[in-house]
Amino acid sequence: MKILNTFIITLFFIYQLNAQKLVKVNPTVSGLVQPIYQIELSNNKISDNEFLVKRFRFEISSKFSDWTKTEIEIDPLDKGLVKDAFIKFELFQTLNLTIGRQKIPFSKERLTSVKNIQYFERTKVVKEFDNFAYAGRDIGLIAESKTKIKKFNVNFSAGIFNGNKGDLNGDYNNSKTFAQRLELNHKNFTFGINSAQKFDSLSSKYFVANGLDFEIEVIKNLTFSTEFLLGRKNSNKLLGGEYFALEYALNDFLFGVRFSQYFSNIKKNATNYFEAKADYKPYKTIKISINWLGEYKASSFSNTMIIGASYVF
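Structure (tokenized):
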């Protein structure tokens, strides 16, 4: 795979460059293992329960100098194997440049690491925007600026990507995807807006998707979060949706409920999703979870329960 070869060669040259300056390279190894047991509660005739390893992430990161960092993340369970492979240059105190395979700066939930997402599964609407290449991972360049305006931390990211969902073999046309995200943080409040523009080869036009999200600690230990997404599916259709989530922390436990909708066509009825969870975190690196997911569509209802654990190393 060309990107891996290029990435390894680039790391070698950076290492040689910094070795001359006597900079010590200290690679850090981390990862995530997530075994689960999935139970299809709505299937009364045929048993469809199974053990799965939901995720198995392995990450190596290194700091070659005060301004150069690298990261590569793989998942043997993923068909593409490579999740992330990028180099970050901290040019100034308020400006970073990152080049390689990485997350597009679009959608708060999609940008949240799998170590910290609310449920085992991301919402349907966010996964669909990933499938349509507005969000998720791709190969490209991101410029990120971090500053502070009065009491608010302000983060702005803008990127340009191949637009082919991170195909490791490279780009297959000369059109690019663009994405931007602005995020404001202050104590227990976060607000973000984002936009993405991608080229459609059939209509020869750029399609646009937009979204906004915010999160606030309503009272002590009770957090409310939401996200709205709307984008062009094709020349004639818009897709979109939203979610609303509540989480309450009680000692080592975290309880939550979430309601979400997905519109495959914004002019037609949505598919509704209802979720609930109970997380128990006896140690910093271990979390035991029970997730329940109900799906209501066209007068039919199905529901699934997932019992699993997450180990971060």
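The mean pLDDT is 91. The chain has one domain: 2-312.
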